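Hello,

Our lab assistant flagged a job as stuck in the queue for most of the afternoon. It eventually completed. Since we weren't sure the result was trustworthy after the delay, we are filing this so someone can double-check. Below is the sequence as submitted and the structure that was eventually returned. Let us know if re-running is recommended.
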Amino acid sequence: GRILFEILFVLYEIESRVCERKRLRDLCPYPIVWVHHVADLFYLKTAGGYKGKTALMMHTPEPWSEEVIHNLQDKFKTDHKFGIIRMYERMIERNACRMADVFVFPSKEAEETYLKFPFYKKYKKGKEVHYLITGVPLPKERYEKQEVRREYSIPEDAFVILFIGRHNQIKGYDLLVRIQKELERRKVCIVCAGKKSDVYQPYVSPLWFELGWQENVEKLYDMADAVILPNRQTYFDLAAVEALAEGKILLASNTGGNKTLARGTSGVILFRSVKDMIKKMERLQKMSAEERKKLEAANYNYYRLNCSLKQFAGNCGQLFRELNEGNEDGS
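-- returned structure --
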């Protein structure tokens, strides 16, 4: 049964991509295509027959082949290796990196995860690598902290830390669940948004809130005292940049793009272990309102100067000009 499932999974993927052949061929007149997924690049070159220059930007905190397998293992609650699917996804990944002319990452630290994998290190040699920091829009609306807390029945006087993301190991959700008693003892309130986990289950507590998937996360940022990203491994988490746009203090693991942000603003506080995470939370909890405001202002200022849509658009334009310099006709 499992082998048949894996074969059908791969065949469905191939068929769905090949059916996009016409759309892919529509891109052939363009001298440069910036691609955001390894499978898109592979099928653009093969099924689409594209001959121009490609810039590949990958977006997952781990190689795509690993993320697919981990998602399937979580979905089916199994440690099955899904060997056929893994082999197919690695073939896609390996060839996409071989076919790419240029690689784009949000920062050098975001690239670190991929440097651990032979398929990237091998095909990176001799190719251009550009760094383009991610941008996000400003919040559309501001919400009053206590009003939002009342809406979700969150204690108005609590020290609230917000977690937004998938409830899995790579995002570090299980680490928060593991230290729930420690946090409760310190009167730290954890509010989680995102699809709930069937694997990691916090116990019922007046200081732990599971809100599930939320359409409007802006109000959640506004009611929190800080945002936490306890990722075991990260790329350049959108939630981190959104936290800065909201002017929120960010507690984050010392990995990937988190390190880039911490280098630029004092309002991003990194931790290296679970013990260190608790220590940094406690330190933040004891800070005066004035000290927190300074950190919040530092984060918003970093966002304004580096991660706004205006900055991002300008950086994208500069990247395309640099990529276009290598084309013979300069079109």
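-- support follow-up --
The delay was a queue issue, not a problem with the job. The result is valid. The radius of gyration is 22 Å. Residues 61 and 326 are 30 Å apart (CA to CA).
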